């Protein structure tokens, strides 16, 4: 990298402490020495589960998302509790939302969904060896589940029926995995602070 | 769909009106009749440009993102001004950030990146027939550009070097387009309010 792109924190405050959202406002120094402010959501991070059956079909959810006033097609997902292990969270969320447990778990990737104004990260896991059981939805949580094939999901991505980023990305990963082009090799998340290629 | 999943607004307020972020807090009715609150960011939406050269290499940016204290690899992108046409915004942002203009534009898809707490939508465009020119970065905007091939970018996605969702999704779309599997056919965005398949 040629340019120094880094922005440096001077000081900051909690600008908004709502029921669900927390906004931090930091005063910062830009690369050219000028001062400005950055506001962003502090988020605990979340897990996303790609539940893949032995016949290569996939378990999904329909859930109403209030900010966009619309039902979305999504993979099971949920916020990481404070101090919770990511894989333990993935197992908990899959069971709570769908009732399914899985005998075979693989970490796939970390994604960042709103880098301009949120520190949220999503940890994607592949879940295989699925066994049905009773769901235990949180109070105030309403969703329904359905099964689809990866070709059906890819068609929904290309036609605009699936627009949720974790679901678009999870579907592309599943295509690569089922085709044998990408192997789910890692069993624990990559370190959060590095983004180096292993090569 | 079996269940009624819809949540209905009762009333609401601007809970936080910051320098950059605006948070709405609405009181709502859940599908079972219970009342609760939803807080979410109001966002004007953004465009993302996939600049594809005749040799199938792609133009990208490195940009520091303060919430995650890290330089990200990204496609050119920017917020839609109030009332601005999406395609006009894509042309403006590509030229401002990279200096490039393009003779051939295709709308690819809309994605939603934070459906639990933001109404942000991102409109992805493919830009071909590229011609270099001078960049005109906004005050306080610092970035550098570079070129890479789609196979190189896919390797960066699978290895965790690229984690920004618009860049992950744009790279998968470019692979489909270059392989001839998905055609960029639409020249204007799909209607915002429908998510129906054409079939």
Features:
homodimer; 199 residues; Nucleoside Triphosphate Pyrophosphohydrolase; 2 domains; 4-stranded mixed β-sheet; globular; NUDIX_hydrolase_dom (chains A, B)
Give structural notes.
Chains A, B: Belongs to the Nudix hydrolase family. NudK subfamily. Chain A is 19% helix and 38% strand. Chain A is built from three helices and ten strands, in the order E-E-E-E-E-E-E-H-E-E-E-H-H. In chain A, the strands form three sheets. The first copy, chain A, has a four-stranded mixed beta sheet, with helices on both faces. In chain A, helix 2 crosses helix 3. Chain A is globular and about 55 Å long. The relative contact order of chain A is 0.17. The C terminus of chain A is likely disordered. Chains A and B meet through strand 2, strand 3, strand 5, strand 6 and strand 8 of A and strand 2, strand 3, strand 5, strand 6 and strand 8 of B.
What is the chains' assembly state?
A: homodimer
The end-to-end span of chain A amounts to 18 Å
CATH architecture of the largest domain in chain A: Alpha-Beta Complex
The overall average pLDDT of chain A, rounded, is: 92
Q: Catalogue the unreliable spans of chain A.
A: 187-199
Percent range for helical residues of chain A?
A: 10-25%
By helix and strand content of chain A, what is the structural category?
Answer: alpha+beta
- Biggest sheet of chain A: strands side by side, in what order? 7-4-9-8
Percentage of residues in strands of chain A:
35-45%
CATH topology of the largest domain in chain A: Nucleoside Triphosphate Pyrophosphohydrolase
Rg of chain A (C-alpha, Å)? 19 Å
Number of domains of chain A: 2
Biggest interface, which chains? A-B, 76 and 76 residues
Query: How many distinct beta strands of chain A?
Result: 10
The CATH superfamily title of the largest domain in chain A? Nucleoside Triphosphate Pyrophosphohydrolase
